[in-house]
Amino acid sequence: MTTKTVPVGWVQARSRVYSAGLAAAPPAVAVPLGEADGHTLAEPLTTLTDLPAFPTSSVDGWAVRGPGPWRVVGRVLAGGSPPPLDEDGTTVEIATGAMLPAGVTAVLRIEESTRTGGLVIGTPRAQPEWRAPGEEARRGEVLLPAGAAVNPGVVGLAASCGYDTLSVRRPPKAAVLVFGDELLTAGLPGAGRVRDALGVPVPAWLRRFGAESGPFVGPVEDTLGAHVSAIQKALEKADLVCTTGGTMRGPVDHLHPALEELGGEYVVNSVAVRPGFPMLVATVPGPDGRPRFLAGLPGNPQSAIVALVSLVAPLLAGLHGRPEPALPQVTLVEAVPGRGDYTHLALVRVDPVDRTAHPVRHVGSAMLRGLAQADGFAVIAPGTTGEPGAVVPFVPLPLLNGERP
């Protein structure tokens, strides 16, 4: 693999890793509805029937024919198939969701009716109190495109359309390897050692970006052999391996040599973005010969999160078969400095009403205080400065399972 480091433009890097992920998206599988949540539609969701499939009452009341008063001739409950009302002046009691008998001219709400003996009196509302066949959708209508994320609402919609299974792409499986002998996994930092601040949150971020993420492994010993062995083991089960640290070429940075030994090929090797430019994505042959992905995140905590939103999020979107993530826009309230020829990702809080972005403090590469208070990153393009009032792209941090602020 080539080892020359030429930073790729931020926009180009995102597009490049998305295309690589999309090309490697797994084949579609059919899964029962109860297992489809968190997957991605591999085919458009089309209705198998009209919705609703038959006329249904939208209220509890009386299905009447002709002018009143009406003689009660029966009752219709949900789940039944009623006989028609053949005579004017007749009615059947009807429950919400029950099938409307043929011949009905109106539905009278129960609370707006009076029953005396076998007769019902009242005035039906002018607006029909039932749902007509196809009111929500017609048979064969496309409700959601291929690439749409499946959530509980989609599962319910599919069930209402008559689906028992869905053709989906499964969530990519991700593993996390933490590099660095200086890291502690418990207790207070001291004596030259610091707490690992990425091993626990990175799997959580990956889940929010749509990966099926397991626990992290680490710290991995700072030797080439340990790095190669850890990556090989992770590749046995994961579609994506995220590593933290070792993305530079220092005396104990073994990621690049490990990738070379494993036959890796860079998709992106460093990105012209600040913070976090020494990030990378590479393909690595898996034990079965199928290419897997490795995303190298810088060791500084905020830089690692910048790498996640910059490269891993679009890569996972591609592996899901979802559209490339589109970035919303925000309006800057305060000035945000540029970073020369590099894109600047600046942590901001966003007002959900007017979409104004307010920079946060404590945003050094090694800091997480600002990140914990932020909604995402304002994107300041190379060669520009973010002036107050400027409208700029915004990279949101996912809240939960793909939700965004």
From TrEMBL:
GO terms for cellular component: cytosol. Pathway: Cofactor biosynthesis; molybdopterin biosynthesis. Its cofactor is Mg(2+). GO terms for biological process: Mo-molybdopterin cofactor biosynthetic process. Pfam families: MoCF_biosynth, MoeA_C, MoeA_N. Keywords: Magnesium, Metal-binding, Molybdenum, Molybdenum cofactor biosynthesis, Transferase. This is Molybdopterin molybdenumtransferase. It comes from Phytohabitans rumicis.
